[in-house]
Amino acid sequence: MRCAPVIPVLVLDGQVDPVALAETLVEAGLPVIEVTLRTPSALDAIRRMRTVEGAIIGAGTVLSAAMMEQAIGAGAQFAVSPGLLDGLVRMASERDLPYLPGVANATDLMIGIDLGLDRFKFFPAESSGGIAALSALAGPFLDARFCPTGGITAETASAWLARTEVLCVGGSWIIRAGETDLAVIFERARAAAALGE
């Protein structure tokens, strides 16, 4: 969560070569990459992206123990979920896999802290009340840090990153649906990387 200000959140459908994409993102300054397990090509993309020097590749949209097992088998270096399941927290701990579960309320946050976590994905960030909601939610939990994801844009990311409790944001805007132009992606990623300066 401290390696870059933005973690690109990718839904890959096979239109872009995953190795070339990972190389582009690393070169632009965004080495931490989340490949969501929403498409048939996601696990293969994780395997191939792991060959890129400097890339830190994780699996997103991990919904079950079976999916986490597949992600680990593909070489994922971290896992992200939209919600919090104690079974996934325990499995990630047993497998020594960094894990970022999604939370949107105090109950989930308390459960996660009780399970030994202090890093969370705030999701869906904008529709859960935005910065004001996260600020209120984080107030009682002084050690908790967050990666807000969901609805954040290039224009709003800096406001999120200005918050003490926010270490990075998830960026689905880095690569738009159906986009294949790596030069355009590079410029967008480089601008996102500069948010941490």
Automatic annotation (TrEMBL):
Keywords from the UniProt entry: Carbohydrate metabolism, Lyase, Schiff base
Report which reactions are catalysed by this protein.
2-dehydro-3-deoxy-6-phospho-D-gluconate = D-glyceraldehyde 3-phosphate + pyruvate
* Species, as recorded: Sphingomonas xanthus
Q: Does the keyword Lyase apply?
A: yes
**EC number(s) for this protein?**
4.1.2.14
Q: Which EC class is the enzyme in?
A: lyase
Lyase as a keyword of this entry, yes or no, is yes
The subunit structure is:
Homotrimer.
Q: Which PROSITE patterns match?
A: ALDOLASE_KDPG_KHG_1, ALDOLASE_KDPG_KHG_2
InterPro entries, per the entry: Aldlse_KDPG_KHG, Aldolase_TIM, KDPG/KHG_AS_1, KDPG/KHG_AS_2
Q: Which residues form the signal peptide?
A: none
Q: Which Gene3D superfamilies match?
A: Aldolase class I (3.20.20.70)
Hey, which pathway is this one from?
A: Carbohydrate acid metabolism; 2-dehydro-3-deoxy-D-gluconate degradation; D-glyceraldehyde 3-phosphate and pyruvate from 2-dehydro-3-deoxy-D-gluconate: step 2/2
Segments crossing the lipid bilayer: none
- MF annotations from Gene Ontology: 2-dehydro-3-deoxy-phosphogluconate aldolase activity
Write the protein's name.
2-dehydro-3-deoxy-phosphogluconate aldolase
Which protein family is it in? Belongs to the KHG/KDPG aldolase family.
